[in-house]
Amino acid sequence: MQVHALIENKVAAAAPPYAILVIAAPLARIDLLARILRDLPVGFRLPIVVALLGQERVGASTSDLPARLQPHTSLAVRWMGHRVSLRAGTVSLCEPGESMIVGSDGVAQRLPGKSMGPSRSARTLLASVAASHGERVLGLVLGGTGRSDECGIRTLKARGATLVAQDEAAAHAWGSARNAVDSGDVDLVVPVERIASTLVHITAAIRRPGGTGAQRTVAAQLFPRERGVPYEVAAVQRAMHRVLGAIEQLRPRDGEAELAHAQVGTPRLGVEIADELRPMVAAAGRSLSVDCAPTIAGLSFGPEIVRELVRRLSSHALAASTGGVEIRISALRLFLQIVVAADGPIDDGAPEDLRGLQAFVRPLRGHVVATKKSGRIECAVWLPKQGH
User: Fold this and answer.
1) How far is CA 154 from CA 22, 131, 143, in A?
2) For the domain bounded by 260-384, which CATH number is listed?
3) Could you tell me whether strands 48-53 and 90-94 are parallel, antiparallel, or unpaired per DSSP bridges?
4) Which CA distances in Å does 6 have to 47, 90, 189?
5) Cys staple from 121: which of 103, 109, 116, 175, with CB 3.0 to 4.6 Å?
6) Which of 326, 325, 328 is nearest to 338 (CA)?
7) 95-115 pLDDT, tens digit each
8) For 27-85, what is each residue's pLDDT tens digit?
9) Domain positions in the chain
10) How many helices (H) and strands (E) in the chain?
């Protein structure tokens, strides 16, 4: 597929804008990673996460890798830190063997327990990105990173990510790039010298800050943008575009009004949540159980809100303990209750690290409760039903 065809397909499908760039890079070919980062502009709009795989060349060390890459790029390069937010234009390297995950709030967290092998470390990281960001992931596969199913690339594709692979010409060992291309997991195969420009082109073309194309057309008719207008006026116009787009997205489409005010949960919701989270939990070596009420009535929001809350709670539970993860979604008389629990050694700071989640549920008049006792952590969200 050509890049223009890919963009047209994404736009036609009203694809959401990308939120993160994930790079699977072999330690043996850090020069390829340095070349890609060198060609990315300083204003690159996405946070960049790099999963490092394999072994470095004989005599090399990874401890100073950010310092070695920094002279090649105008982007900031750092090791991925525990409870550190990913930022646009910053390259976060996941150290081989580190058990890191990324939540839907864009915060990286380190799983407690022993270190992992490079392949399992990358699989855990990419599975968490796939679960938390889905089709908003733009991925790059550099040659020599191993089999795509082993390092998590296939999990990304299964969740709707757009994947770009380096072509065979410049690859010392094509590895996962060949495997991903042969298995159909890759959307584009690009020469190494054009990878950076392709990533920039894709992220710039697929943008939807203010709703769908039709909604942006309405906003543009009401607030046309003209060249040469003062900066302050243009800023106000852009803000009005976003406001109108958000208002349009709140309007229920055909058949959705009754759903929003009557029944949100379905018998399939628990199965869908389990299918979405299982790769991330399994990659971390944990078990997963999901118990979801078959019918959840009286809510003013759709099932995607429930899924997002479960994603965030699960990320915190994984980072705070070492045991299996239990998810319970209960329809009480006045509230919807979502509980995610896990057993094992407790990270003392985890229950307090839920301020972002509290801000997320505040507009829904919900609240978050986290408890820890007897080697068990429980994170719960309570959301009132309509009229309560």
Assistant:
1) 13, 12, 15
2) 3.30.565.10
3) parallel
4) 22, 26, 12
5) 116
6) 328
7) 888 889 998 888 999 888 766
8) 888 888 999 999 998 888 899 999 988 765 444 567 789 999 999 999 999 999 888 89
9) 3-205, 260-384
10) 13, 17
